[in-house]
Amino acid sequence: MKENPKIVYETTGNATSYRNSVAVATEDVILFGYTEEAVCLDPYPIFDNELTIYGSKWLTIDDLRAVVNLIETGKLRTKPLISEELHFKEYIKAIELIQKGEAIKVVLKP
Question: What is the pTM of this model?
């Protein structure tokens, strides 16, 4: 049986990603992705799991080093976070996918 993660780092600022983060985390949600959009969250997983939600709009160099360390040591897998990989020329398509809710994180390659 697959276990849900204790800590979820939300890095997109996408409302769907905020909701998914709260739905799967079992201890903490750390919001790095910033949005000015109002986001409605289901309170059930927050109370059921006694979640702590941290907001972090401003990253420090130590924060970035910690994230890089998690990636380098394999503790944070970035591949499952990527919805699409497109060429930079497909920038408009990437924006459309995100706006339609068909993608959460799009990597644009030169």
Answer: 0.55
